[in-house]
Amino acid sequence: MSGTAKERTDEGRGISDREDGGETAAENAAQRGDTAAERLENGWFRVKIPLPYSLRYVNSYLIPEADGSWTLIDPGLNTAESRDIWLRELNRLGIRFRDIGRIVLTHQHPDHYGLAGWFQLQAGCPVLMTAEAGRYARRLWGSGSVFAAELTGWFRNHGMPEELLVQLGPHLASFRERVEPQPRLTDLEPGSRLDMGGESWRIIDAPGHAGGGVCLYSDASMTLIAGDQVLPRITPNISLIPGMQEDPDPLGSYLDSLRELSGLETRQVLPGHRDPFPDAGRRAMEIIAHHERRLEHLRGLLAEGPASAFDLCEREFGTHLRHNIHNLRFAMSETLAHLALLAKRGEAAVSGPAGGPWTYASA
Fold first, then answer.
1. Nearest CA to 112 among 139, 97, 130?
2. CA dist 251 to 167, 314, 337, Å?
3. Which terminus of the chain is more solvent-facing, meaning fewer CB atoms within 10 Å of its CB: N or C?
4. Which residue spans within the chain are E strands per DSSP?
5. DSSP per residue over 58-73, as a string?
6. Can you tell me the distance from the alpha carbon of 210 to that of 262, in angstroms, rounded to the nearest whole number?
7. Would you give the DSSP letter of residue 322?
8. Which residues, 6 or more positions from 315, have their beta carbon under 8 angstroms from its beta carbon?
9. Can you give the pLDDT at residue 34?
10. Residue 226, burial from CB neighbour count under 10 angstroms (0-12, 13-18, 19+)
11. Are 70 and 99 in contact (CB under 8 A)?
12. Partners of 186 in beta bridges
């Protein structure tokens, strides 16, 4: 989904982001027992909402408040299966829609943001997300969006063949129904604090994976609500995308964010995918090392001679991604993010006319 690939393990280079087989992701997840609400030690609930990708599920969190209401974090992708699971789990927990007092979104990717508008219609509650994340959501799914055309032209200039480019528009359009209806947003301010679950949470700017993304940290319990910024065993997709308002060095921003998060003392990290874990700092440093290895590998490819970003992408990730435009889009955007950081460090240079095509070489 738009920017939501966390498919890469630290050891591998392949990207795989779809459920195989004829059953739906929800049916598969239900058979595995993944979708029941799990009570955490602090009295919160983690609800695993299935995804039609190899990530399997996104973690949503229900937080009880002193006034009897609940705060909901990242409700998941808007699919029939997801809505059915929420109806079942809320009923099982005895939580009515009107008991949902607010929704907090760590970022705007569809697997986190998609059900926010649906919940808002049912509960009549505010949806909190940063203004920057809201701007990006409107760019992708707002009325009159031209993002698909912009991305197609961007990838064309970087060497992607036409038979793959024609798939981008329909692919991106397929996400609109998974984020509709879109919510009315209340701004969440990075650097501010939010009272939630009887604790004061620091709203931490978390760029790189998603512009406008945030993590939330409680000094009292040393808990980090990480979104997708720090994930166990896998790493989030880091994409360079076209646009004057977008981050020209998302990987650099992401690595800086990880260094900031590594300074937090944590007892519990609640991630957007996979299971909670204790040590954000250790995992952040592992992810930094992973990306430095990726950069070193890319430097080696550039040393072999000039190449387009698409050629480098296929040499890094493999030609099999031509059969999966979803994963290829993420691989291409992540390759470009790594090239942008190498260029910023003076280790790579891009050349070509203003309208493309462009090639990269060692600097």
1. 130
2. 26, 19, 6
3. C
4. 8-9, 38-39, 45-50, 57-64, 70-73, 100-104, 127-129, 185-187, 193-196, 199-205, 214-218, 223-227, 234-235, 268-271, 348-351, 359-362
5. EEEEEEE-TTS-EEEE
6. 19
7. G
8. 301, 307
9. 52
10. buried
11. yes
12. 128
pLDDT digits (tens, 9 = 90+) for 89-98: 999 999 999 9
Nearest to 62 by CA among 88, 38, 27: 38
Instruction: Pull the structure tokens for residue 228.
Output: 């997708």
> CA–CA separation, 155 vs 2, rounded Å?
15
Tens-digit pLDDT profile for residues 41-86? 999 999 999 998 778 899 999 999 999 999 999 999 999 999 999 9
Cis-peptide, bond into residue 357, ω within 30° of zero:
yes
Between the alpha carbon of residue 324 and those of residues 16, 53, 187, 235, 361, the distances in Å are 9, 12, 35, 19, 27
Residue 179 gets which letter from DSSP?
A: T
> DSSP character for 99?
G
- For 66, the token pair is 């002193």
d(CA 228, CA 215): 9
At 279-310, the pLDDT tens digits run 999 999 999 999 999 999 999 999 999 999 99
Contacts of 95 (CB under 8 A, 6+ apart): 62, 70
Task: Tell me the pairing of strands 45-50 and 57-64.
Answer: antiparallel
Signed CA dihedral, 8, 14, 15, 18: sign only: negative
Instruction: Kindly tell me the burial class for residue 290, based on how many C-beta atoms sit within 10 Å of its own C-beta (0-12, 13-18, 19 or more).
Output: middle
Residue 39: φ, ψ to 5°: -80, 125
Whole-number Cα distances in Å, 16 to 23, 176, 318: 17, 22, 12
Task: Please list, residue by residue across 233-251, b when 16 or more beta carbons sit within 10 angstroms of its beta carbon and e when fewer do.
Answer: ebbbbbbbbbeeeebebbb
